[in-house]
């Protein structure tokens, strides 16, 4: 390893293999994409700006930007903005933010400076149009004037070949004239459509995508970027390969459902290359299986339904699998990247367990999250032999394995807060926390972590029989870290905060949004398995230093899990905390 570091030129990247890396490495070895002034690996992430990105998109982002990073290439962010009706600037902005937050950039240091590779398919509308005229001219496209219903009926299905349109053999000059008139706005939506004519018998192709696919349609719609310049818009299957080729993409990576679109992708680029539109070699498409994550839905449409129906508070609700939701919940970009690396890329469909993502999160947070104390379900503890108004300074490391992170200080006082569950009137077997004297047996002895050993002397109850306070005595010579303190042998060790200085704070205990591991599989109604306990809000007592927690700061609250100061609702001196994840997985065992 150390030799590799000294000589990067000969060092093989120490990356786990996957089929995409194998393809890229073999192309690099063969020099497939060596071109002047360009890297040999150029990928792209091509979202449609019609919603918020989710964890599935995060995988695609990590795959595409990750390959570029690992092989000295570049990755483009390209908005596939060819459907003016559904696209909005709000989505463009959040997508840009999300990709940046995940840790990626589309800037590339080229031979003549920084190149910014943020693109829009709409940048290519002129070229796309010119290429369509070329296809018509070459007999590879024609204007179809059937109604939408006729076209659907004539398309056939998986078992039945399609039927040629009566307009399929109309003269090229006639198609060209109508196409120009379509562009000039002489027709209404749906009156005509431009279709590819791949081969004589294309309408009987077993691949439905090859049956004279539509490449341009009339849409009298305002476009976010091109305004009212156009009233015809290119179809996705036509736009996508051409955008890839114009950007000199080398490896066009997408999910498996596009496998059947690849023959058209290849045909289109080959046909247009013959017309001299592109530099060779043209991009190649490769497919990998999409991410299916248990307890999560990743359809934009269904996520929108959760927002619209008020099941969640918005796209960035910490229970949402959107990137903005994960971010607000407290996920780190590093954890998401680690997760994508760990699950790898394959061609086989399957489900990844949510616990894998949560495991990556714990792995990332454990070494870096400062520790803090929080009592989530408070019960008063009274140290009867500790003087009222007095205070004893206590401290503990910010991180048990990183002394360089310093120490935190907090006072021990007569009244403290402990967790409700740390006291039992009648202890069950093996319970080592507080219980009162029973008969001639003394009460239990418990160490208050980083403080003193105490012995339970009694407890108070209200009229309803609810325990309102636990009473103890402390042993003055038992303070943690002082000589002789370890002569006290106790089995219970619990956390606490001083009632005199505790910070009262809202803590939101988040859990999975669904109880069914596959909430929408097989057309299931996902609203039927919404987890009623996906959010519980409590008023907790935190150690006093927590008042300075800034939005997005993450902590481990000892015994409870990882928490983040909510980026939306935290105010100076008044943090609101979200539980990111518990310390241990409580789902797999169920
Ligand atoms: P949705 O079905 O949720 O609307 P989409 O695929 O229509 O998502 P796009 O904006 O077209 O959304 O997606 C951009 C890229 O992200 C595409 O290349 C797509 O294949 C990829 N992608 C979308 N969902 C997943 C997923 N679950 N796993 C991996 N990649 C995904
Ligand atoms: Mg899509």
Give the key terms.
590 residues, alpha/beta, Rossmann fold, Glutamyl-tRNA Synthetase, domain 3, Glutamyl-tRNA Synthetase, domain 2, 4 domains, seven-stranded mixed β-sheet, 13 helices, disordered N terminus, binds adenosine-5'-triphosphate, binds magnesium ion
Describe this structure in words.
The chain has 590 residues and is α/β, with parallel strands linked by helices. It has four domains: 19-119 and 238-289, Rossmann fold; 125-236, Glutamyl-tRNA Synthetase, Domain 3 (Glutamyl-tRNA Synthetase, domain 3), CATH 3.90.800.10; 291-371 and 502-590, Glutamyl-trna Synthetase, Domain 2 (Glutamyl-tRNA Synthetase, domain 2, Orthogonal Bundle), CATH 1.10.1160.10; 374-495, Ribosomal Protein L25, Chain P (Beta Barrel), CATH 2.40.240.10. Helix content is 24%, strand content 22%. The protein contains 13 helices and 27 strands. It has helices spanning 2-6, 19-30, 55-70, 89-101, 125-137, 148-154, 172-183, 236-246, 262-274, 300-308, 323-329, 333-343, 354-365; strands at 42-45, 74-79, 107-110, 113-116, 118-120, 141-144, 193-196, 214-218, 232-234, 251-255, 284-288, 371-372, 374-375, 378-383, 392-397, 407-412, 415-419, 445-448, 453-461, 467-474, 492-494, 497-498, 503-510, 535-542, 554-557, 561-565, 577-581. The strands form seven sheets. It has a seven-stranded mixed β-sheet. Strands 21-18-19-20-14-17-22 form a seven-stranded mixed β-sheet, with no helix packed on it. α9 links the parallel β10 and β11. α3 packs across α12 (333-343), α8 crosses α9 (262-274) and α12 packs across α13 (354-365). The longest helix has 16 residues, at 55-70. The protein is elongated and about 105 Å long. The two termini are 42 Å apart. Mean pLDDT is 95; it is low at 1-9. The structure holds adenosine-5'-triphosphate and magnesium ion (MG). Adenosine-5'-triphosphate (ATP) is lined by residues 46-48, 56-57, 59-60, 254-255, 290-291, 298-300. GO terms for molecular function: ATP binding; glutamine-tRNA ligase activity. Belongs to the class-I aminoacyl-tRNA synthetase family. L-glutamine binds at residues 80, 236.
